[in-house]
Amino acid sequence: MDLPAPVINKPSRRAGSAPTISDVARRAGVSPMTVSRVINGESNVRPATRDAVNTAISALNYAPNPAARNLAGAGQTRIGLLYSNPSAGFLSEFLLGSLDQAARSDVQIIVEKCELGEHEIEVTKHLIDGGIDGIVLPPPLCEAQAVLALLAEAKIPTVVVASGFPATHQLAVRIDDREAALTMTRHIMALGHRRIGFITGNPNLSASARRLEGYGDALREVGVPLDEALITHGLYTYRSGLDAAEQLLDLDDPPTAIFASNDDMAAATVAVAHRRRLDVPGDLTVCGFDDTTLSTAIWPELTTIHQPIADMSRAAVELLVSTIRTARNNERGERHRTLDYTLIRRQSDAAPRRRPPTRRA
Q1: Which of 345, 342, 351 lies closest to 303, judged by CA?
Q2: Angstrom distance (rounded) from CA 90 to CA 293
Q3: Count of CA atoms in the C-beta half-sphere (13 A) of 249
Q4: Rounded to whole angstroms, how far apart are CA atoms 339 and 357?
Q5: pLDDT digits (tens, 9 = 90+) for 221-273
Q6: Structural domains in the chain?
Q7: At residue 220, what are phi and psi to the nearest 5 degrees?
Q8: Cβ-count burial of 329 within 10 angstroms (0-12 exposed, 13-18 middle, 19+ buried)?
Q9: Averaged over 161-172, what is the pLDDT?
Q10: How many angstroms separate the CA atoms of 3 and 271, rounded?
Q11: 2-16: per-residue pLDDT in tens?
Q12: 136 has pLDDT over 90
């Protein structure tokens, strides 16, 4: 007796085979053409749709087929990333975000370190001579005028990241530094503090000036005069934070709270407070900015402003690639993107102590 042939349900694609653009489209609930636009960095995609497609790409571990891209005429785009940043936490997150988006956009990214004031022009010329298609400049290189002038002369698309005052003609990704500092200072005052120290960042960066502006504006809102003695200057480095905190805490009438312009300097302030046997936050509230890994690696963990560093670097690569590809089609895309910040409250802030400070043994 003949047995009936077994029934086999075939999957839509071979088990274990690489996901396709159609798989990404189905998961994101969009068309394959929309997925293609996101991958190619085109600007005519709504942010929510772009996020859904990128989430699907990550979930499926999808990688575009370079051969197919070349047949379509996209070619291989090469972008450079120049960095010179004193904060290891900031740099680590920035590099991870950039590399991730470069892979998603199927572009080659060349990462070069150059110390500002030493050989940044030489490194920039090397990238230009190598036929680079575009450049990403995080701080402090985002405002290195000699580098920007050289790239402009060579007509190399350039995106600056975390500049407080990007020019209207520049490609730029940033947060609103003034509003972020205003929000943090309001939070500290809502706890009851009125004598608030502030540690500025690198004086050569406009974002530093914007954060100082937000701090001063928050004080003026409640009629607290700006006391220059409570403002000390740092360089976004841990060492500069140590010196600035010592200066503030040596005052005859020291602050009850210190707001530092980045987490490195805030962590240094906590270290100085502990060395002086001051309790944080019982005797001194300390707040930072950036929300790097350092903010949760110390005790107490820092209240800080979350600057979405990795997302900013992803947006920078995406914006740059979109600009390069739309320029090839004689199109003009967006120039600026402003991302959201968030106030993250942890254990380093409290209401000012209403009694003589307790000294820890």
Answers
A1: 345
A2: 9
A3: 24
A4: 40
A5: 999 999 999 999 999 999 999 999 999 999 999 999 999 999 999 999 999 99
A6: 21-54 (no CATH), 77-175+308-340 (3.40.50.2300), 177-306 (3.40.50.2300)
A7: -65, -30
A8: exposed
A9: 93
A10: 80
A11: 444 443 333 344 445
A12: yes
With cut-offs at 50, 70 and 90, classify the pLDDT of residue 75: low
AA letter at 286: V
Instruction: Find tokens 């800080």 and name the residue.
Output: 304
Higher pLDDT, 355 or 206: 206
Q: 62 and 56 in contact (C-beta within 8 Å)?
A: yes
